[in-house]
Amino acid sequence: MPLIQLTNVSKSYTDPGSGAQVPVLRGINLSIDAGESVAIVGPSGCGKSTLLNILGTLDLPDSGDILFDGDSLASLTAQQLAAVRSQNIGFIFQLHHLMPQCSVVENVLLPTLALKSAPADALQRAESLLEQVGLKDRMNWKPAQLSGGERQRVAFVRALINQPRLILADEPTGALDENSAEALTDLLLQLQKSSGVTLIMVTHHRAQADRMGRVLTIHEGTLQ
Ligand code: ADP
Ligand code: ADP
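Above: the input record for the complex with adenosine-5'-diphosphate. Below: its predicted structure, written as tokens.
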């Protein structure tokens, strides 16, 4: 069974000028298996973030259905969707969105507060993941004391802390220089393989997209 399956998903936005409906995604069919690494590419404004937000249940399609692990999300309440998200999905964005007043390890542990009961081994898990990304000796530092690449590594560890089934990454290397971007992609893929998590990443960098297991291109609202 696929981890996530989209059937005939469409999404339009209202043009604020003319008031017309502008289609962004048109009848998207997509099936992603557990453990896959998938890149989503396409020109700016083609709908990559819209698709990622729908995959992450942050946004709802106008029509079509989404199955997560075989269960339809269409009939869930906002609260039920939030529960699906916090238990199954980790997010990384272009900007790290770390809390500046919290230390590295406190930032990493924040998503565990959204769970009904935080796992007893959360701190050990945070330390182990920080070690795997080379930041264990900085777990009590503040985000401002880290480089851009190091902050994104912390954001990645935070996305993994609840042992999600799926990581959604929206241009995670977009604000980094080339070397840091490549190093972060190495780490993402290394941890993705060792943990078996499914990774879906929006990227502008073709070279990084080609390192993923599958590349999807959005063209005129459909996938190629
Ligand atoms: P990409 O990530 O590929 O750059 P987006 O998914 O962000 O593209 O946006 C696709 C199109 O949808 C753009 O034309 C954008 O202006 C429009 N759009 C995205 N979000 C909204 C919104 N909340 N309201 C209105 N239009 C939106
Ligand atoms: P990058 O090339 O990734 O942007 P930087 O030049 O920003 O890296 O940082 C290089 C190193 O210096 C990093 O390991 C970072 O942790 C450390 N560093 C950066 N800013 C500070 C700071 N304000 N206090 C302590 N260490 C810092």
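Notes for the reader.
The chain has one domain: 4-223.
Residues 13, 24, 42, 44-50 surround adenosine-5'-diphosphate (ligand 1) (CB under 6 Å).
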